[in-house]
């Protein structure tokens, strides 16, 4: 063949094999149809590529030639190919090359190798030609032999004069009959090992030493498809170094962290497929429809080796960003626009980490499980915060379920907040779960409503107690202790504060305890703490309004 894809891949995989040609062994490669009539308004069509061979082989490569009216857009490999490495489309000399390879001869018999999807926006009759096909067999001496199959199998394409879908394609020798005259609702993309390595080489590394590997699907690629399936080798996410895979689509961007699948669920799986699907809001319950309106609804799920799984992992949250344009009214109070998920019973739940980023025009949130996701406008008011300087902060956290009132209608903004309650709120903003609980405190019982939060805070290095094995949960927390916890929270979230400022400009700087000075200096440098009338009031008790203010600032920094 003009492009020795297989040989190149074998070199990459360090399998340097001598390849020799041999006489044809009556193997065939043919389209599943001889002709397709494409619907009047369809912009694409699909056809299967069928292989047949009595002698087992390890690899196959194909060359497709089209005229100027048709373009090969997508190759979707069938389950028969299994975990073999797939080669994405490569163009050379007017021919589109692709294929698959494995390290053993186990492909045999007659089977559908892949489905080819073509773009067709013309009314001119066209021809698709299977110009080249080659099978490779490995031998016992460390070499390989190549079989060139009879080329120039053709597929005739015409445009239907009506909108009907008669299924008039003429079946060929294959055993699969896809009508091919309607544009598909599913766009599939397979990232093979070569494409994965190329993307890894281009990856960027952030300040937290996490390597981001980026892939993109464009609107022109998916056409009218309502669902995107993006498959990649799980080895990209199963490395020792810190990595994440970012998949950008017209429906939204999904960033997947390394080791996203728990080891017990992963098993021996080799590939991970992300499905992102646009859902029609009219399919939801009337109550949910009323809240969602015309805002986007996305369904997310994973597949392992082509099989759908229920995914949940508290230790590896996935980041999601959904493009959306706010109305002029919504822009005034963007903090009230939140993300939500819809459970299996059709009930809507607010996602605490959801935040609309005005500068990018996207709703971003993190999630530790997959479901249906959407965007809603929420509100929550308290009778005693209408004139509070922290009203917006209080309401922004309240609608996300991060902070609650002292009653259903009151917040008590000027009341002191306890160490237990502030710690619970802080852990809620972080949205983190510790892999193992802390050693515990003498005065924090397992029945306390704040028990899990305090244990998580201790395990994350936020809370260390008073030195006598106690946490003093019911005591009011001081402003300087709040600053220490807040500083540690930034570090636990992977956003450590590095700059420090002098405290000399504050009248009461001498009242800051020695253990708190480093944290206070960093929070001042970051602009989170500014003081009041030239004072830090470090020993004063923290009020509920002040707690809401600093926690909302932390929320905006993290999300």
Give the topology, please:
Elements: H1 5-12, E1 19-21, E2 28-31, E3 33-38, E4 44-57, E5 59-66, E6 70-77, E7 85-92, E8 95-101, E9 107-120, E10 126-138, E11 144-148, E12 153-159, E13 170-171, E14 186-190, H2 193-201, E15 204-205, E16 211-216, H3 219-222, E17 227-233, E18 243-249, E19 252-257, H4 263-266, E20 271-278, H5 286-292, E21 297-304, E22 307-309, E23 318-323, H6 328-332, E24 337-342, E25 348-350, E26 355-357, E27 362-367, E28 372-377, H7 391-399, H8 419-430, H9 451-459, H10 479-492, H11 517-526, H12 544-558
Parallel strand pairs: 1-11, 3-12, 14-17, 16-18
Antiparallel strand pairs: 2-4, 3-13, 4-9, 5-8, 5-10, 6-9, 7-8, 10-11, 10-12, 15-16, 17-20, 18-19, 19-23, 20-21, 21-22, 21-28, 23-27, 24-25, 24-28, 26-27
Helix pairs in contact: 7-12, 8-9, 8-10, 8-12, 10-11
Task: Give the amount of beta strand, in percent.
Answer: 25-35%
Q: Helical residue percent?
A: 10-25%
Largest sheet: 9 strands, mixed
Any low-confidence stretches, pLDDT <50, length ≥5? 1-24, 163-183
Question: What class, by secondary structure content?
Answer: alpha+beta
Can you tell me the overall shape? elongated
What is the β-strand count? Answer: 28
Distance between the termini: 51 Å
Over the alpha carbons, how many angstroms does the gyration radius reach? 30 Å
**Mean pLDDT reading:** 87
Q: How is the quaternary structure best described? A: single chain
- The count of helical stretches stands at 12
Search tags:
alpha+beta, 8-stranded mixed β-sheet, 559 residues, 19% helix
Task: Please tell me about this protein's structure.
The chain is an alpha+beta fold and 559 residues long. The chain has twelve helices and 28 strands. The strands form four sheets. Strands 1, 3, 5, 7, 8, 10, 11, 12 and 13 form a nine-stranded mixed beta sheet that branches. Strands 14, 17, 20, 21, 22, 24, 25 and 28 form an eight-stranded mixed beta sheet that branches. α7 crosses α12 (544-558), α8 packs parallel to α12 (544-558) and α10 packs across α11. The protein is elongated, with a radius of gyration of 30 Å.
């Amino acid at each position: 063949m003009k492009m020795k894809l297989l040989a190149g891949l074998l070199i990459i995989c360090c399998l340097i094999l001598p390849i020799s040609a041999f006489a044809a062994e009556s193997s065939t490669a043919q389209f599943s149809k001889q002709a397709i009539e494409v619907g009047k308004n369809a912009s694409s069509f699909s056809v299967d590529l069928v292989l047949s061979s009595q002698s087992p082989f390890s690899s196959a490569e194909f060359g497709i030639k089209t005229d100027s009216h048709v373009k090969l857009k997508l190759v979707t490999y069938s389950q028969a190919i299994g975990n073999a490495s797939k080669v994405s489309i490569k163009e050379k000399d007017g021919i589109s090359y692709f294929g698959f390879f494995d390290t053993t001869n186990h492909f045999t018999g007659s089977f559908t190798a892949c489905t080819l999807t073509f773009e067709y926006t013309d009314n001119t009759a066209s021809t698709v030609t299977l110009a080249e096909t080659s099978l490779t067999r490995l031998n016992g001496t460390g070499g390989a032999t190549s079989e060139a199959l009879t080329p120039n199998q053709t597929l005739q394409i015409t445009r239907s004069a009506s909108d009907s879908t008669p299924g008039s394609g003429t079946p060929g020798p294959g055993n699969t009959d896809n009508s091919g005259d309607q544009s598909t609702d599913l766009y599939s993309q397979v990232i093979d090992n070569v494409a994965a390595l190329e993307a890894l080489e281009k990856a960027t590394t952030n300040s937290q030493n996490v390597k981001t590997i980026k892939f993109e699907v464009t609107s022109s690629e998916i056409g009218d498809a309502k669902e995107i399936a993006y498959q990649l080798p799980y080895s990209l996410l199963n490395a020792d170094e810190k990595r994440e895979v970012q998949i950008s689509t017209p429906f939204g961007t999904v960033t997947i962290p390394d080791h996203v699948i728990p080891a017990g669920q992963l098993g021996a799986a080799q590939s991970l497929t992300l499905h992102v699907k646009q859902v029609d809001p009219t399919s939801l319950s009337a109550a949910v429809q009323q809240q969602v309106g015309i805002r986007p609804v996305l369904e997310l799920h994973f597949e392992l080796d082509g099989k759908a799984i229920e995914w949940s992992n508290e230790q590896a949250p996935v980041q999601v960003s959904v493009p959306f344009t706010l109305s002029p009214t919504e822009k005034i109070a963007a903090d009230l626009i939140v993300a939500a998920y819809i459970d299996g019973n059709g009930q809507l739940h607010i996602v605490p980490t959801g935040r609309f980023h005005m500068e990018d025009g996207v709703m971003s949130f993190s999630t530790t499980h997959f479901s249906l996701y959407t965007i809603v406008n929420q509100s929550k008011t308290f009778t005693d915060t209408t004139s509070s300087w922290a009203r917006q902060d209080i309401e922004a956290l309240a609608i996300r379920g991060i902070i609650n009132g002292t009653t259903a209608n009151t917040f008590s903004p000027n009341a002191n907040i306890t160490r237990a309650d502030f710690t619970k709120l802080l852990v809620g903003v972080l949205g983190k779960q510790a892999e193992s609980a802390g050693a515990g405190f003498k005065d924090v019982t397992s029945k306390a409503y704040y028990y899990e939060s305090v244990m998580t805070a201790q395990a994350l290095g936020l809370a260390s107690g008073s030195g006598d094995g106690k946490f003093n949960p019911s005591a009011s927390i001081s402003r300087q202790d709040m600053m220490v916890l807040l500083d540690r929270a930034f570090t636990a979230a992977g956003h450590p504060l590095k700059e420090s400022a002098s405290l000399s400009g504050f009248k009461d700087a001498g009242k800051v305890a020695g253990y708190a000075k480093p944290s206070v200096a960093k929070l001042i440098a970051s602009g989170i703490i500014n003081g009041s009338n030239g004072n830090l009031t470090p020993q004063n008790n923290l009020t509920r309004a002040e707690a809401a203010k600093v926690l909302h600032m932390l929320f905006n920094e993290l999300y």
